[in-house]
From TrEMBL:
Needed cofactors: pyridoxal 5'-phosphate
Tree of life domain: Eukaryota
Domain Tryptophan synthase beta chain-like PALP: 11-257
InterPro entries in the cross-refs: Cys_Synth/Cystath_Beta-Synth, TrpB-like_PALP, TrpB-like_PALP_sf
One Pfam family recorded for the sequence: PALP
Gene Ontology MF term list: transferase activity
Family per similarity comment: Belongs to the cysteine synthase/cystathionine beta-synthase family.
Database matches in Gene3D superfamilies: 3.40.50.1100
Keywords: Amino-acid biosynthesis, Cysteine biosynthesis, Pyridoxal phosphate, Transferase
Provenance organism: Perkinsus olseni (Perkinsus atlanticus)
Protein name per its UniProtKB record: Tryptophan synthase beta chain-like PALP domain-containing protein
Amino acid sequence: MLRDAEEKGLLVRGQPGTVIEATAGNTGIGLALAANSMGYRCIIVIPETQTEEKKAAIRQAGAKLIEVPAVPYRNPNNYVRVCSRMVENLRQQGHHVFFGQQFDNTANKKAHVYSTGPEIWEQTGGAVDSFCCAMGTGGTLSGVAEYLKSKNESIHIGLTDPKGAMLYRWFSEGRLAASGSSITEGIGQARVTGNMVGLKPDSVHEVDDSEALSCLWNLLNEEGLSLGLSSGINVAGAMRMARMRPAGSVIVTILCDTAQRYERKMFDEEYLISQGLPPRPVPVQNIEESDLSSALEEAFASDVEVKTALAEYEKAVPEELMNGRPLP
């Protein structure tokens, strides 16, 4: 999106410019880092309900973070709409700002037409026959679908939607309606964005948080993959697709980020239980706690052993090094 803005003259390398974006997902982190590398400043407007880990990552990337109350898109104070009006106000004040508009800026979708789609095709040797993922802005699914369909029209495209989002019913019934809720972040949409225009998924799947978390716990405990909440939705959708596709199908999905960005949600047992969700089943260790405790206790050297070892070390090390002077 930033390169596209430069090509259109909306940002000029070497001149002061500020990138502003409304995001509840990982785009804010990516934009902040990319803006740094291109010499721009960055301001991110985010719903206050997003995880503290994600907010910290945005701040660490050097962006200014503005938190606003989380309200539906139909509310004039939705974070996207507040950000849009703020951008206009700054422009009227004479500031040079670029509003990323990731939801409706089709440079988002094009990035996946030119990069993610070809990467999937090349890495599977053209064998991919199914692709599915959830939608936040819609750029990933729409862009990948456009590219893969251009290579093979029979490739099956699936949308996986979390509970509480409206796209499942939009694509299956032609109406924007939601049922339930989800603790996931950055996916699930209550409107058809500019990046979704023209998308016609071959199948749609609605996944609840319990199913997604079950996938995440299995991936962590059995595969050694520590993945974020949206990845659980995506993997659950891919597994559903696998049950409906022919044996031997090559199904691809997206693993967006890691569990570390959602630690206070995913690994907070009290929080999960309050949401009616299953906490992580902790793997049972194969060494008894008593054996581990005694082995650890015996592993520590005594005070006498520590004193003797340090004295011997001082004798063995040249005096020049002990006093911080370089050797001749």
